Write the structure tokens for this entry.
Amino acid sequence: VVLLEGEQTSSFTNCDFVDNHAWEYGIIQHVAGNTTFTDCDFKENGVNESKYPGVFQLDEGGSGKLTVIGGLCSGNTAGSCGVVNQEATGALLEMTDVVMQGNYGKDGHAAFWSAGKATFTRCTFKANTSGSTAKTAGQSITISNGADVEMYGCVIQDHATTSSSTAVSVKGDSKLTMSADNQGNKNVVSNNSAGYGGAFALVANENTSPVVEISDTDFIGNHAKGCGVLRVQGSTDLSLDNCFFKENYSTEAHSGAIGWESSGELVCNNCTFEGNYALSKDGNSNGYGGVAALEGDGKMYINGCHFKGNHAHKQGAVIRTYEPGEMS
């Protein structure tokens, strides 16, 4: 529908993009220049089921800046990346007050995939879905290939799958930073579910691991077979500051909130864990680590945190550790 290249400046205001279709590269292909969409809605757009993305394509090797302010992205479909595919490491993506709801990516990333620099402020990611081929991709969001993503005051909720896909997947040498926005609005991650890692999977590649820094974020009612909120693998480093974990749970394995399978470091400052729990599938095995289970040779540093009303079916109402892991 729209091809944006060259060094132009373009703006679209109060426009509706409905039921547009292309073979690939979305209905908005951004190659270069500075483009702003304000209060525009994107509904029921798509590409071939083996192609991507449904709406915004930031081309590899591209430059410039794509800004989206306000509006709704809903019902858009693609083979992957139902809304945004950011291949351009040299282009910036900024989205503010945008709702991405009910989009579909057959192979994952129903809302967003990034290998570049992106900032989301007060955006909502809700009930986006993927197919069974998503595997370890994020059902709604995948951050990989050296991406640097920041989220301020965002909502991630109501994603559900029984596969290894989670709502958000952070891979390799990427970085994710989450914090409150400049008005004090916290991030809220709620009612997401998956096989392992109800909301987030932090996954290392062979030689690289992501760095994730999360502050001022509420995790409420997320659940999975194991690792109710976060599953952390490889040598990933994670910091949590002033976060609130409430009524998250695992149904079959371990870790009501955090499954720490990483050789990296978890630093947890001034967080509250309330009413999280780990159940057991058959009543006899698993069901340990109501808040967290530390496996492997990783390290946990817990400072100034508050634990209330957490429980486990078997062992470790709050935290269960295994050698050679360390906790202090």
Notes: The mean pLDDT is 87. The radius of gyration is 20 Å. The chain has no helices and 45 strands. Residues 25 and 57 are 5 Å apart (CA to CA).
